[in-house]
Amino acid sequence: MYQEVAGGVCAPKGFAAAGVHCGIRANHNEKYDLALIKAEVRCAAAGVYTTNKVCGAPIKVDRAHLKDGYAQAILVNSGNANTCAANGVALAEECCALVGEALNIPAEDVLPASTGVIGQPMVIDPFARGIPAAAAKLAATAQGSTDAATAIMTTDTHKKEYAIQFELGGKTCTVGAIGKGSGMIAPNMATMLAFYTTDAAVSPALLEKALKTVVPGTYNQMSVDLDTSTNDTLIIMASGLAGNPEICEENADYDAFVAALTAIAEHMCAEHAGDGEGATHLITCEVTHAPDLKTARAVSRSVVCSNLFKAAVFGRDANWGRILCAIGYTPGDFSIDKVCVWLSSAAGEVYVCENAAYHPYSEDEAAKVLAEHDILVKVDMGTGDASAKAWGCDLTYDYVKINGDYRT
């Protein structure tokens, strides 16, 4: 149904990107810290943002700029979150004006985003240097996407980008993505920065609806540390250059578009969770036969968010009681009597819990399963037809080390 292609956010028709070093971080002399994504045409656009009451200034600007449902460029900096700064909104607006001038587009069609340390002073000088440099470097190539993906990284250990192709209305369409986020990630909306581009033709209203349909079962189901960031942002721009009939209603093409967005979002969630700060394992929890979707999602989140289970995975300890415990404290009215649990990876699978009780298994085999990077926890609740996934990571010593000296 989907085919992975190279190019990230530059894979869809009509998009170029760049990453440059502009000097936002005084202690990083060469790291790219400013990314720019530009569309050839004015695009339908939509965004979803943090639920934190303390939010970054760029989010306030984005919401204002997206009132008409259109945009043409995205500007992202790393190193400073532009949150809780007295001049934050004015600075974000000034950055949009600089991008507009450099690209010859209205400033209102520019969507800013920031990530980094919260509460630090911010000045326009690095942007005044970096924006013209990024505009001059824009490239509709895989390297352009890679440079942009690199520029938005903070504690990420590797860049995160992905693109897939699919069919809509007889036309080949593409969705591409870049993202960042390894810490301050909790299941509470788009818990990081992510930027999607597509050449599918979708109306602004249906694009927003599709995005808000996909987020609850993907980005809201991801956690590293239960801290919801102040700057969480997920933006999508649709150029329409693939030539498919514009999606203006909830029809078969709309369903296919939502399915494609879901596929790329699930991939990106696994990328983020697997690269959690200090992590050595990606933990995916799949819940099946739950009484309803709300319960399935809640139970899977509880498992990947359990610090005790996360620590057990780090120690390669098949302590399934911690999984059952997490299921048991999940809010909701449901029975645990038929809960069964398996631990699975490329090394095999062990059946550890049957009907909420111990199922005989080999500790040695379980340790081999947990030695792999990607760990799958399968929970069968035996009480219905609903299913859901959640993504998380193990809890390691390095998580504390990284966050103990984050500002230095």
Catalogue the unreliable spans: none
Q: List the secondary-structure elements in sequence, H or E.
A: EEEHEHEHHEEEHEHEHHHEEEHEEH
| Termini gap | 46 Å
Structural class assignment: alpha+beta
Strand percentage lies at: 25-35%
Task: Please describe the biggest sheet, giving its number of strands, its sense, and whether it closes into a barrel.
Answer: 9 strands, mixed
Instruction: Please give the share of residues in helix.
Output: 25-40%
Write the layout of secondary structure elements.
Blueprint: E1 3-4, E2 15-20, E3 34-49, H1 57-65, E4 70-80, H2 88-103, E5 110-117, H3 125-137, H4 142-151, E6 160-168, E7 171-180, E8 193-198, H5 204-214, E9 233-238, H6 252-274, E10 282-290, H7 293-305, H8 307-314, H9 320-328, E11 340-345, E12 348-354, E13 357-358, H10 363-369, E14 374-380, E15 386-393, H11 397-404
Parallel strand pairs: 4-5, 8-9, 10-14
Antiparallel strand pairs: 1-6, 2-3, 3-4, 3-9, 6-7, 7-8, 10-15, 11-12, 11-14, 12-13
Helix pairs in contact: 1-2, 2-3, 5-6, 7-9
What does this structure look like?
It is globular and about 65 Å long. It is α+β, with helices and mostly antiparallel strands. It is built from 11 helices and 15 strands. Helix 1 packs across helix 2, helix 2 runs parallel beside helix 3 (125-137) and helix 5 (204-214) packs across helix 6 (252-274).
Summary?
The chain is an alpha+beta fold.
What brief labels describe this structure?
alpha+beta; 28% strand; 408 residues; nine-stranded mixed β-sheet; six-stranded mixed β-sheet
